[in-house]
Amino acid sequence: MESGRPGATPSEPPSSSAGHRAGAPDRLPAGPAALVGVLGLGAGLAVGHLVAGVLGPNASPFLAVGNTAIDLAPAPVKEFAIRTFGTHDKLVLIGGMGVVLLGLAVVAGLLSRRGPRPGTVFAVVLGAVGVAAVWSRPDLGPVDLLAPVAALVVGVVVFRWLHAVAVRRGARVGDGASAEGVEGAAVDGAAVDGSPAGAGTGRRRFLVMSAGVAVGAGVAGTGGQLLAGRGDTGGSAVGLGPLTPATPAPPIPAGADFAPLGTPSFITSNSDFYRVDTALSVPRVRVENWALRLHGGVDREVVLGYADIRDMPLVERTVTITCVSNEVGGEYVSTSNFIGVPLRDVLERAGVKPGADQLFSTSVDGWTCGTPVADVLDRGLLAIGMNGEPLPIEHGFPARLVVPGLYGYVSATKWVVDLELNRFDDKQAYWLERGWAQRAPIKTQSRIDAPSPFTTVPAGSVTVAGIAYAQQRGIGKVEVRADGGPWRTAELGTEVNLATWRMWRVELDLGPGEHTVECRATDRTGATQPEARVAPTPDGATGWHSTQFTVG
Length: 552
Ligand SMILES: Nc1nc2c(c(=O)[nH]1)N[C@H]1C(S)=C(S)[C@@H](COP(=O)(O)O)O[C@H]1N2
Ligand SMILES: [Mo]
Known about the structure:
Domain Oxidoreductase molybdopterin-binding: 280-431
Keywords: Membrane, Transmembrane, Transmembrane helix
Transmembrane segments: 33-55, 91-111, 118-136, 142-162
Protein name: Molybdopterin-dependent oxidoreductase
Number of strands: 19
Strand content: 15-25%
Largest sheet: 5 strands, mixed
Shape: globular
Bound molecules: ligand MTE, molybdenum atom
Region (Disordered): 1-24, 524-552
Helix content: 25-40%
Radius of gyration: 30 Å
Structural class: alpha+beta
Distance between the termini: 75 Å
């Protein structure tokens, strides 16, 4: 049992307990051993989270490891996660990491039944992983290492201390000799009497200490979470007030959507806007710390602050952005009134030299994106607002890129801090290194929103309605057919501009029973959305969307 005490020399073999008598319990019971492992882990993680709450939430070793895992995960794993869990992919990752860590902590605890060494090694290794993850995050600095270091130290200390308490408790359950041996291991100087009541006292003491650690970890973790929330958009955006564009977008005309018939509203609210990114925890940038650096193929390097952008004449543009990972019929497409400054005007501050074909942008968390310079100069926006408000943090506060017509991964950098003009041959952006295409204009697509799949609709005339998009080309027509019959041309919603989606509706006379309807869009160049289903990799899905329902 002695080898179990804190301060045991590493050379001491696990069961070299002097004075140990045959028949005396040699090991911690499994339950307390596992509990000690779990509580050591919990205490370490919670304190790491608390310190990160003060320094900056992303310094939390748990989140840093998660963010690193996302960046290191092989592309197919990430695509699977996005496909399977959608926007919940991050919650699933957090839950999965929690389960794995819990399992490892139980195992570490169980391996430490003869002595705290295995669990100590586990805590140190895990802490080191946290340190390495925080160290490697592009949005974190050396000070942020305090969070994982605190987690490591607290994890080790709490584990060893609770282990000692548990050992003492176990000894009490055993016999006097072993209790005596353990007495020397007391780390807190608490006197343990030799009375027959000692076993109960020891056990109670262990339970009280464990509960104390659990409560303490809960308080620390919650505190960290609350402190982290402090720096929300609220924090630095609150004083910004409403953004009033010098050139507002034209109002959305009546008849642009068929929301009462089941299409989305033409403008997506900020809270409903789809979200896709690699950030497990959203980067929280304060405007006073934000700067945008323009460099590379420019006449002079320039660094712009938030006020520099805000003081330029602001424009407002209605744009539909779309994710390349969107499956046929998928939800990763939304429309907003983006407020910002034309990227052409921003880049003019630095002077664009001829020769560059790529605008290589980097976010504060190190994500990168390559956009054709021609598209950027033609219609790119450095957006600081969405639907009249500062950008929500999930959508890139304080500033992001929006370049209509290109999938988000090659055009829509959120939390942008760096713009470099170079050549596509010089530098490869984040998703290119993971097998996605260098150029990715949005493909013509259409989706059926009503009737909802597998519902029953009343007999008679059935309204089928949905969305279509072919950004920068425009939608020419949408056709719908039922059960493989003749194509019917749908009525289109009023066009807003070429950068946005278009809603459609059609009435079909369908008899009672099950029906399958399909839709296909044709863009203004005359090209019809192809029937063949192609997966999103490497440059966007194709195929006709279909839906099944019953007429009753
Ligand atoms: N910093 C950063 N910006 C990013 C991404 C990212 O992972 N990190 N993802 C891009 C992708 S793939 C898409 S589709 C759009 C989505 O923007 P949204 O979340 O505002 O809808 O953001 C783009 N900008
Ligand atoms: Mo995307």
